[in-house]
Amino acid sequence: MIAFLLKRAANAAFVMLAVALLAFVIFRFFGDPVEMMVNEQATQADRAELRERLGLNDGLVTQYTRFVTNAVQGDFGISYRNQQDVMVLIKERFPATLELVLVATVISLVVGIPLGVITAVHRNSRLANVLQLGSIVGVSLPSFVVGILLILAFSVSLGWLPGFGRGETVNIGWWSTGFLTPSGRAALILPSISLSTFQVTLVMRLVRAEMLETLRTDYVKFARARGVPTARVQWRHALRNCLMPVITLTGMQIGNLIAFALVTETVFQWPGMGMLFIQAVTFVDIPVMAAYLMIVSFIFVALNTAVDITYAWVDPRLRDDTARAGGANG
Amino acid sequence: MHIRNLLLATVAVAGLAGAAQAENTLKWGANRDIGSLDPYSYGDSFTINVLNHVYEGLVRYNKDLKIEPALATSWEILEDNVTWRFKLREGVTFHNGNPFTADDVVASLTRVSDDASPLKGNLPAYVSSKAVDDLTVDITLNGTYPLLLNDLTNIHIFDKEWMTEHDALKPTDIGAGVEGYATYNANGTGPFSVESRQPDAKTVFVKNPGWWDTPQHNLDRIELLPVTSAATRVAALLSGEINFTNDAPVQDLPRLEAAPNVSVLEGVDLRTVMIGFPFRDKLTTGADNPFKDVKAREALYKAIDLDLIHQKVMRGKSRIAGATVAPPIPGYAPELDTVPGFDPEAAKALLAEVGVPEGLEFEFNCLSDGLVNEEQFCQAIASMWSRIGLKPKLDVAPRAVQTPKRTGGKTDIYILGWATLPMLDAYSPLLQIFHTKEGNSGVFNWGDWSFPELDKLVDAAGSELDLDKRIALETEALGIVKKEHIMVPLHQQPMAWAVTDEVSEMPLFPDNKPRLWFAQVNPGS
Q: Of A53-57, A64-68, B385-389, B403-407, where does the model show the most confidence?
């Protein structure tokens, strides 16, 4: 088991280093941060001096090594644009993104699971067909379109909900939460619905497929034969057996949601990490871009590793396989 | 029971009192956030503009964009012609209560001209300053220089004691990797003070009751609410979540005008959009560069249908320009503001005359995040040039990507917009664009041209203290720009702000900077 853990940790570290290297290669194509930092009247000499001071004239390898050395110690430098410590910037924005992602995940489960069961149970009914069609629309509509439509409907026409921002927040330690104020909760509604549309349909389709399979199994038939009420069979016995893959998928998708929240955040001016990243790209704020990519990839790697380790813990065969065949784990 | 009624009554009274004292709030939906609370942190005119509500300079622009006294009440140039003596306003206090004195001015000028300051270029002639007495400051320059006041409009004055106390006497040096106190805190003398700031979400400014000037505004509170997405910003204005924006998207103007509660404020920006030519021996393709010849430049100018661009691309909202500076800018002369007729045949003839080969290829460099509809008018111009037998290779990308190509001579023809900010004088483009590239001059001379005759006029203007003489020199230099077609102007771009009916007064400034100390809202908004 220890060998397995070490191996997984080494893999994770390797992935992180590769992401950092890729990031640094890509940054070259983002342009020159100095041109964005100085004002119109700065001379060529001023610009060259600033470039030198920021270490932008050093080779790719030198910059990369410096970045990795500092990053390992948790130091991502100072943002060119905001002049703030990058870790502070990200720490400030992380709660906003995470709360949005959590609410979106809850919505996707609360809405997606019942819809999945209904479409599976009443497989050929009109309602199921409508829901199925709706789910195709949900999968194919880009999330910024969903966002704008929601704003037009609920904010401009009906005037019920705020169309942008996070409302009032309350600080608990360094964590700023929008859950504790009415305006904070109202502000969460539209962005989290917009972020969850894709997820809802994903969960719904997964539950439907699993349910269809489960409903054909013997124990369901026996339960029915024994006279257990239909609803109880479907919602209690069958559904429970479908939930394992849903939970795995949801866990893995949290990383995705954090990464793709940036579109929703831009549309709703949600002050989260995605918003921070988009602005960093505009202003070629390399320290912020680098830190964001590292943190998001860290979340992905951590989630994947956690899932792998859990599987290995649950199913000893995976461990033995690694020991023998050298990495046949999922 | 009795007590409960009493309580209810008290609550009701408190509620009424609250309603009566409702604050006048301007909810400003900007297209982006400020970088930080430190105006000296980043070469960014929007940040400086917003923080001008908190910090002030020695002088400022009035409603007509003329310079008037602010923290200084009067000034004179001493006999040596390089030292300026400023008398400071008495009885001014910073938001923290500290009195404003000459030491504050010296410390602020030292801070902005520090080597680590990205804004030191804003004070190009500055050498040193010293406090003569509590309310008198001498500023020494590197020569006779007429535009110091223009420069000083944008140099915000900090409190020295406050900076000393918080170790902020020097600007934040990103290279050193240490944060600065002024990034998170502000303490100026201006009409508003900072109440709170959440980056990318909300920055709140409240009225400074102890402001030295008589307020022309009736605002108690300004909420700066950045809304990056244009569609969301328009929606927020329609739903009344914001009541002012300084960037109403051009494509949404008809919709905003149609809304019953919104008014659009339209104007023409000072920013003049120009085409720049290369003067190097070779083009980037390696071919000989025909654009060194004024006739080739003229041909390209004549091939552009300015009316069509005005009508179709700019939706009739731009102002077609013949001069390289806008009419309100000192140095502008109406006789220079003429455009050649659109004449592709004459353009072809000119090209033939200078022997430009059919199908000549060259780079045409535009920004995707630059001027209003830049990508679209660049496409239009490229196709107009194709029609006279040339092959422009249109290269559109973000500013951060294009600027190194432009400054490094790795492109041929390019688009540049120039508003003469922060100087608001024709000297700005003359020195920074049209002058030969040397030292502090010609930083934006990306085509590597050199006109000694023009340089002489610009240098003379740069040390001419008599206003009329200086303007005459500048106009003469602009005449050379026009005659030689060093850069050819296209138009001044449109600008549009929008307010809801909660806002009763919002003067539109052609430099596209909101000055909310002139704004009024309906009471209780």
A: B385-389
> Greatest CA span in chain B, whole angstroms?
102
CB contact under 8 A, B399 and A50: no
Look at A164 and B225 and tell me if their CB atoms are within 8 Å: yes
In whole angstroms, give the CA distance from residue B184 to residue B170: 15
CB A29 within 8 A of CB B401: yes
Determine the Cα–Cα distance for residues B158 and B38; give it in Å rounded to an integer. Answer: 10
Cβ under 8 Å to A: B residues 425-484: 432, 437, 439-440, 443-444
Tell me the pLDDT of chain A averaged across its residues.
Answer: 83
What contacts A6, CB < 8 A, 6 or more positions away?
none
The answer, yes or no, to whether residue A320 has pLDDT greater than 60, is no
Which residues of chain B lie closer than 8 angstroms to A269, CB-CB? Answer: 200-201, 225-229, 232
Which residues from chain B sit within 8 angstroms of residue A29, using beta carbons?
401
Residues sharing a CB contact under 8 Å with residue B186, sequence separation 6 or more, in sequence order: B37, B38, B51, B54, B55, B95, B193, B194
DSSP H or E run through B136: strand B136-141
Cβ(B427)–Cβ(B474) below 8 Å: yes
Nearest to A39 among B43, B173, B227 (CB): B43
Tens-digit pLDDT profile for residues A181-211: 888 898 999 999 999 988 888 889 888 888 8
Handedness of CA B258, B264, B268, B272 (dihedral sign): negative
Max CA separation in chain A (angstroms): 87
Closest-CA distance of chain A to residue B391, Å: 26
Interface pTM, i.e. ipTM:
0.77
- Res. B195 pLDDT band, cuts 50 70 90: very high
Which residues does chain A have within 8 Å of residue B232's beta carbon, measured at their own beta carbons?
148, 151, 163-164, 267-269
List CB contacts of B410: < 8 A, sequence separation 6 or more.
B284, B404
Which range has highest mean pLDDT (A312-326, B27-41, B343-357)? Answer: B343-357
> Is the Cα torsion angle B122, B125, B126, B132 positive or negative in sign?
negative
pLDDT at B17: 39
SS3 content of chain B, % helix, strand, coil (to 5): 30, 25, 45
For A176, nearest residue in chain B (alpha carbons): B198
Tokens 């009751």 locate to B209
Distances in Å between the Cα of A125 and the Cα atoms of A201, A221, B226 are 18, 21, 48
Give residue B281's pLDDT band: very low, low, confident or very high (50, 70, 90): very high
Closest residue by Cα to residue A33 from A93, A77, A94: A77
Are the beta carbons of B400 and A35 separated by less than 8 Å? Answer: yes
**B window 159-188, beta carbon within 8 A of A:** 172-175, 177-180, 183-184
Q: What pLDDT is recorded for position B504?
A: 92
The structure's pTM equals 0.82
Q: How far is A201 from chain B (nearest CA, A)?
A: 25
pLDDT value at A220 more than 60: yes
Contact (Cβ atoms closer than 8 angstroms) between residue B99 and residue B93: yes
**Are the Cβ atoms of B43 and A269 closer than 8 angstroms?**
no
Report the gap between the CA of A48 and the closest CA in chain B (Å). Answer: 12
Neighbours of A159 (CB within 10 A): 13
Bridge partner residues of B319 (DSSP):
B492
In the block, which residue shows the tokens 């300004």? B222
Q: List, in order, residues 6 or more apart from A220 with CB less than 8 Å away.
A: A214, A233, A237, A238
Q: Is residue A179 within 8 Å of residue A167, measured between CB atoms?
A: no
Condensed to tens digits (0 to 9), the pLDDT of residues B426-466 reads 999 999 899 998 877 888 899 999 999 999 999 999 989 89
Tell me what pLDDT residue A180 has.
87
